[in-house]
Amino acid sequence: MVRVTAPLRVGVVGLGWAGRTHAESFQALPDAEVVAIAGKEADLAAAVARDLGIPATYPDWTDMLDAGGLDVVSIATPNSLHMPIAVAAMKAGLHVLCEKPLASDAEQAAAMVACAEDTDRVLETVFNHRNRGDMALLRQIVGEGGLGDIYYAKAAWMRRRNYEVRGWFANRDAAGGGPLIDLGVHMLDMLLTLLGEPEVTRVTGSTYAALAPQWLQAQGRDPATWQVEDLATGMLHTAGGATLLLEASWAVHGPYADDDMSIHLHGTRGGASVRVQDYVTGPVRVYHDVAGRPAEVVVAPGKGTGHATVVRDFVRAVRSGDWAQHRGHAGLVRSKIISALYESARKGTEIRL
Ligand SMILES: NC(=O)c1ccc[n+]([C@@H]2O[C@H](COP(=O)([O-])OP(=O)(O)OC[C@H]3O[C@@H](n4cnc5c(N)ncnc54)[C@H](O)[C@@H]3O)[C@@H](O)[C@H]2O)c1
């Protein structure tokens, strides 16, 4: 085990919301420093570097890796670049923190995990939503046994009207999919985390592009630029017999806010749910029988920590020198399930994992 003692020298790839959040989160730690940032937007790179005190900027991730002098690469680029950047970085001896989804598909995610094992590097996926205050509270309620065995759970992230997805998000090659791989992967992560990482054995998925292309056409724009689903649903079965439902949309007619996120857990002793609209964290509702009658307790969650905790835990893992439990497996499990849901939607059949 090699303990790392000097501050970690971090290079961040990507200058969007995610990249900037990575850079801010590393810079906030005493034992890490962002020494380089890479991205296509030269003006933005200069502004981020100036704001956060980052000494070097590069137009492309390859230039940043070629320049050397890094211990860590933090990836916040379009999904299709996650695998090539991570593999090149790990082969160059660097540890990797990668935005969700780990990769555009399960095959690429598996190649990344295999590379982490071969090169003995840390590979972690950013699943920041599991650090929300309401998720932490739900995890505590589940962990204390308050719900008994959870046999049915639902998670949804529904955006009612998000046709104006930016840049690469609706491009199949760059993104690997639409709201399922973008938002659904967060909800899947939260469900699996809350249920203690159950093994998912079979899935059925459906995808639709019912509204977004129509809307583009009505605007006189090319509907063919919309290459992914605008709504997806999935049914997952676990080895323990639980059923999980997943929903994600960028466009849907329904009783949703522009950002509408919900989780419902149903167990043998109780149930719990949370609904968050437009990022305003709602309370956690817990359902039990009291004196033989249905009762509801409403509990206020604490503040969430998001990327700050993901980055802190990643830095701790790298510095510990004990890397065997940090090879990207959680990201791979989620990528396999998302890919299986897409395969099921394509083939119209259930897929066994
Ligand atoms: N965890 C979260 O809450 C969260 C939120 C938003 C986005 N994300 C994820 O973060 C990633 C980026 O999303 P975004 O919204 O920031 O995207 P974005 O389009 O705003 O930014 C992408 C960045 O990648 C850079 N890039 C592209 N090709 C490059 C290259 N060859 N070399 C160097 N840089 C290159 C672009 O210049 C740009 O700065 C995606 O994987 C997305 O799923 C996660």
From TrEMBL:
<dbReference type="InterPro" id="IPR055170">
    <property type="entry name" value="GFO_IDH_MocA-like_dom"/>
</dbReference>
<feature type="domain" description="GFO/IDH/MocA-like oxidoreductase">
    <location>
        <begin position="137"/>
        <end position="272"/>
    </location>
</feature>
<dbReference type="Pfam" id="PF01408">
    <property type="entry name" value="GFO_IDH_MocA"/>
</dbReference>
<dbReference type="Pfam" id="PF22725">
    <property type="entry name" value="GFO_IDH_MocA_C3"/>
</dbReference>
<dbReference type="InterPro" id="IPR000683">
    <property type="entry name" value="Gfo/Idh/MocA-like_OxRdtase_N"/>
</dbReference>
<keyword id="KW-0560">Oxidoreductase</keyword>
<protein>
    <submittedName>
        <fullName>Oxidoreductase</fullName>
    </submittedName>
</protein>
<dbReference type="InterPro" id="IPR036291">
    <property type="entry name" value="NAD(P)-bd_dom_sf"/>
</dbReference>
<dbReference type="GO" id="GO:0000166">
    <property type="term" value="F:nucleotide binding"/>
</dbReference>
<dbReference type="InterPro" id="IPR050463">
    <property type="entry name" value="Gfo/Idh/MocA_oxidrdct_glycsds"/>
</dbReference>
<dbReference type="GO" id="GO:0016491">
    <property type="term" value="F:oxidoreductase activity"/>
</dbReference>
<feature type="domain" description="Gfo/Idh/MocA-like oxidoreductase N-terminal">
    <location>
        <begin position="8"/>
        <end position="123"/>
    </location>
</feature>
